[in-house]
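TASK: fixed-backbone design
INPUT:
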């Protein structure tokens, strides 16, 4: 099921924040951002399971249990596992909208009302709804329509726009409970992994024919912080597990 009400309330919207526990400044940033944009009135779940240290524990990463260390970073695997953990929560609560935010996003003013306006345009059959800017990917100008906020992207790679498939990075998006279940039941949710979460969803999109939609203009941007992976003070093992 999926709620049909597009007026967002604490009863029908869940906010999931993907967070790496060690980066306490990001927690502070996101707590303030949620307050500033009125998202703190909704139930907020901080996703802190599957931190990078858990991926590295007991030599599992070096053995290749999670994926080829030469092909995918431990931090990327951590991020995949955190998103999949959210999908399990989404599947367990199918009557709510579920907004997923990564912990370095910048939320644009008027977010809640803009999101409500977008939800009125989503059709009954949707799987993923990307509301973030994601690598500066936009719906091309020739497809945009006055007064319209939501656009079908689909799953097909190789279009003239949209990168490698259905995703627009994963800093801010909603996922339908049925889609969460389909991804979890597929091999895309099982290690070994060979690509980051956004490209994993592109591959899943093509295989599962995921109906993805993009918000234009985007409601969220990314990059509140320089990546911790580049900072040896935050990530002492960067040279070995970048």
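OUTPUT:
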């Amino acid at each position: 099921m999926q709620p049909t009400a597009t007026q967002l309330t604490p009863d029908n919207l869940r906010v999931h924040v993907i967070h790496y526990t060690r980066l306490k400044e990001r927690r502070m940033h996101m707590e303030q951002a949620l307050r500033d944009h009125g998202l703190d009135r909704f139930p907020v779940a901080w996703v802190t399971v599957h931190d990078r240290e858990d991926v590295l524990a007991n030599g599992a990463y070096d053995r290749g249990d999670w994926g080829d260390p030469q092909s995918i970073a431990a931090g990327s695997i951590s991020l995949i596992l955190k998103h999949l953990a959210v999908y399990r929560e989404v599947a367990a609560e199918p009557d709510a909208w579920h907004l997923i935010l990564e912990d370095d996003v910048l939320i644009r003013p008027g977010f809640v009302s803009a999101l409500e306006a977008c939800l009125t345009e989503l059709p009954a059959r949707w799987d993923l709804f990307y509301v973030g800017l994601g690598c500066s990917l936009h719906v091309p100008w020739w497809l945009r329509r006055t007064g319209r906020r939501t656009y079908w992207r689909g799953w097909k790679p190789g279009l003239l726009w949209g990168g490698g498939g259905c995703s627009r990075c994963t800093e801010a998006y909603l996922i339908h409970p049925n889609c969460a279940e389909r991804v979890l039941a597929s091999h895309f949710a099982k290690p070994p992994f060979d690509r980051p979460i956004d490209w994993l969803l592109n591959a899943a999109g093509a295989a599962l024919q995921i109906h993805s939609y993009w918000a234009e203009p985007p409601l969220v941007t990314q990059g509140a912080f320089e990546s911790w992976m580049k900072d040896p003070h935050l990530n002492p093992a960067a040279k070995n597990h970048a």
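COMMENT: The CA atoms of residues 157 and 165 lie 4 Å apart.
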